Amino acid sequence: MEPTPELSPHHAYPDHWEADVVLRDGGTARIRPITTDDAERLVSFYEQVSDESKYYRFFAPYPRLSDRDVHRFTHHDYVDRVGLAVTIGGEFIGTVRFDRINEQGRPASAPADEAEVAFLVQDAHQGRGVASALLEHIAAVARERGIRRFAAEVLPANNKMIKVFRDAGYTQQRSFEDGSVHLTLDLEPTEKSLAVQRGREQRAEARSVQRLLAPGSVAVIGTGRTPGGVGRTVLRNLLAAGFTGRTYAVNRAFDEGLATLDGVPAHRSLGEIDERVDLAVIAVPAHRVPEAVADCGEHGVQGLVVLSAGYAERGSAGRELQRELVRQARSYGMRIIGPNAFGIINTAESVRLNASLAPESPARGRIGLFTQSGAIGIALLSGLHRRGAGLSSFISAGNRADVSGNDFLQYSFEDQDTDVALLYLESLGNPRKFTRLARRTAAVKPVVVVKGARHSGTNPPGHAVPVSRIPDATVSALMRQAGVIRVDTVTEMVDAGLLLAGQPLPAGPRVAILGNSESLGLLTYDACLAEGLRPRPPRDLTTAASPQDFRDALAEALADGTCDAVIVTAIPWVGENGEAETGDGEVLAAALRGAAAGGPAKPVAVVHVEIGGLAEALAAASSTAAPRTRPTTLAGRPAAAPGAPTGAAPATATAPTGPGTAETAGAAGTTELAGAAGTTEPAGTTEPEAAEPPARPGRIPAYPAAERAVRAMAEAVKYAQWRRQAATPGKVPEFLDETTDGPGAAALIDTLLGPAPDPRGRPLTHDEARELLGRYGIPVRPTLPAPDPEAAVAAAARLGYPVALKTTAPHLRHRADLGGVRLDLTDEDALRRAYAEVTELLGKPAELLPVVQSMAPRGVDTVVRASIDAAAGAVLSFGLAGAPSELLGDTAHRLVPATDRDAAELIRSIKAAPVLFGWRGSAPVDTPALEELLLRLSRLVDDHPEVVSVALEPVVVAPQGLTVLGATVRLAPPPPRGDLGPRRLPNY
């Protein structure tokens, strides 16, 4: 909405305050500033508010607004007087207003930092979370305008409004004065207010997806009059799946006399249907979609699946059509899957929805599947069906203009019919949020991701998202940190999903291998070693082994306390005539299932070669199994997912051992994670119950190659280890609070950036960087310029011998191999000789920019970096200096803020880590000092987002202590942090 002419440029309409939000019941609404054009909307809104609500707002009977009231409530300066409205279909359903006041409670201007706030919500929309959403947004506006506190007067009987303030999580004070409750809220976000906000976001977004997947009625708009076509195909699939709700066929071209089509009511428009339709599947040409969306919005449809193509995948004009489609749908409170979508599926017995182009509805199962590609969706559905796996839900989002992978994670976290979430993603619209949601979801159930378009440097057509500059290897490391199982192909995703959905998680990396083929067993053994597992010597049952022999061997392996998982290898039996017998798959499957059901809960996978019916028989037992019961929090959410780590606790991880090595298992027990997700109720707390014993193993996955089975098992082992660690998360050490000067650093940054900072930022000088880093306890060894030999000698005298002479020209920095660094210069003569040699070899001093620095204790040269990516956030990186990190890419990454555990894992996760711990007889270096440095740098960039990049290179880590020899720092105005602001839906 454009500002009216009477608004001055200084108080221009703040369009950045506009936002689409998801309400508590899953519907959407728009929040925007109130303008002078809203007078009629305000009057209409007020007429629909009950007398009781009016009384609570004005503390007296107030049947109508006067002209003066309307003028006051629609004229704002957007600084001292601000009003926001929540709209659906262009009409107000709720309003909030603040007026800046002074200490006496009278109208004021800045620098007064308190405001009086008041809300009003239509009675028909109370209980939908409208006031809570308004409070988040008006508080953000107030902070932007320099207001730090809200004051509110509430009647004691207005319990709903008192609860809105109480549950917001802000620091507040309450008193009772003159017959009303006086509330004062400190608007500075707190850990509790952020937790409340994210908890509400999670429940609302999960509910919005649940409304799409479990409608009571579905209308297919664009159903063809003759068989074939997209709309008619969807209608046929809905009927074939046995959808439990009501189904309607809609096409404006239907003959007036047509009453039914394929046995369902046929209508020319939604207006002809006597009841409200929950979900509309739109399958009309793109130019007719706006008309269909308007018809849906005017008749109360809750959500849309838009199969129509011709949007952002067609270029800039199509992208604008797509944005307008989203704006139109959200204005009516509807969410969209698509456009260019393949459809959605929900196999729950109470729903049985197949609103997709998939000809066969998958069997009911425990896997949730989200894909941004229709073609990949078809392939995944076919692959899962072929291997006997069932699904709980399926969403093919197409261009992903609205509902995204983040929404699917919100839903999967809550959905008790889903044990594993599989996602094929081609872009990440909000990487920060994805990482946060994935970490929480992975704490209770596995999340397996395939990321397409990894190396193209661009997003697929139709996916307008923020561009990230970080390489794919960094993205993979950050996903791992969040507990995401990142795989490279959709085949690997299915392989891992089958194992995770049907088997308990392994308690460690020790794998028993048994089978009737020595060669296949050895291949499996080698694959285990290559994946970092610790296999036992393969047990050869010989080709004469019967199904009973397999059952006995598997039962024995499962009972063995020194193994955490079992891989069974099988080849066809050879009959008396020398021909292979492939018809005994069902018998072998029954034997293996019997052993798995009767033994300790450990994962089992089968590698088979051409055994007819084996994979199908192994899958048949549980592809339609009833949901497993789980303990819940007091909020009704699952406290832990089936398949939590069970059995013997793993011993400390070591290198894989060879055949014949005996190991002792750790203490026996069950490792279930109760409430590990950290979900938030309105007050920001949860009370998980104790976890129940693990479920018995379900379907046993079968693989046609040893490498595939082992890779899936290795992913399960790594995920189980992450789950155990996530149960006791790391902490930021308290000493950082005592030894850092945050206010001093903030003041210094303000000074360095100046009153009008360059948006591109500025690099700091060596001395400026030393001063800033010093505020956080990161000392940088000083360097002195040496533009000539005399200056070098003077610098050495000041610093004290021995010294180093280094060139700092960009093309020679950190390149000792080119002769630009001379070390251990013990006297003036040595320094002068080195200076002459360097300048003679490499060029004039003005080109080389030589400096002198005192020598540091010998150690391992490392590099520590931190940078802020506009999409992913702040990232902390570590590697060995030189070739390992620059040439081989041996660098590890973690998201900021880093905990003590993150820092410890960071230095141990690079391939060259043994160099730090006494490799080949060298002295181990001071890794605790290195961990502390990582934590200090993490704290610096987390506290001060203006620090957009830091590189400490080299950091020489000695057996005792470390020395930072070089540092480069860049400051810039901080990028926006959408993940810390009020809830809002993205606009791609």
Description:
This protein is of the alpha/beta class. The chain has 28 helices and 41 strands. The strands form 7 sheets. The chain has an 8-stranded mixed β-sheet, with helices on both faces. The longest helix has 23 residues, at 191-213. It is flat.
The quaternary structure here is single chain
* Helical segment count: 28
Mean pLDDT: 86
Trace the largest sheet across and list its strands.
1-2-3-4-5-6-8-7
For the secondary structure, the number of strands is: 41
Silhouette: flat
Question: Ends: how far apart?
Answer: 19 Å
List keywords for this structure.
flat; 8-stranded mixed beta sheet; 21% strand; 7-stranded mixed beta sheet; disordered N terminus; 988 residues; 28 helices; alpha/beta
Summarize the entry for a quick read.
The chain has 988 residues and is an alpha/beta fold.
Chain-wise SSE layout:
Elements: E1 19-22, E2 28-33, H1 39-47, H2 51-58, H3 67-74, E3 81-88, E4 91-101, E5 114-121, H4 130-144, E6 149-154, H5 159-166, E7 171-177, E8 180-186, H6 191-213, E9 217-221, H7 230-241, E10 246-250, E11 260-261, E12 264-267, E13 279-282, H8 289-298, E14 303-306, H9 316-331, E15 335-337, E16 343-346, E17 353-356, E18 364-371, H10 374-386, E19 391-396, H11 405-414, E20 420-425, H12 431-442, E21 447-451, H13 472-481, E22 485-487, H14 490-502, E23 510-515, H15 518-530, E24 534-535, E25 539-540, H16 547-559, E26 565-570, E27 573-574, E28 580-581, H17 585-598, E29 604-608, H18 614-620, E30 702-703, H19 706-726, H20 735-738, H21 742-753, E31 762-763, H22 766-774, E32 783-785, H23 789-799, E33 803-807, E34 821-825, H24 828-842, H25 845-848, E35 850-854, E36 860-869, E37 873-880, H26 883-886, E38 891-895, H27 900-908, H28 927-943, E39 947-957, E40 962-964, E41 967-971
Helix pairs in contact: 6-11, 8-9, 10-14, 11-12, 14-19, 15-19, 16-17, 17-18, 23-24, 27-28
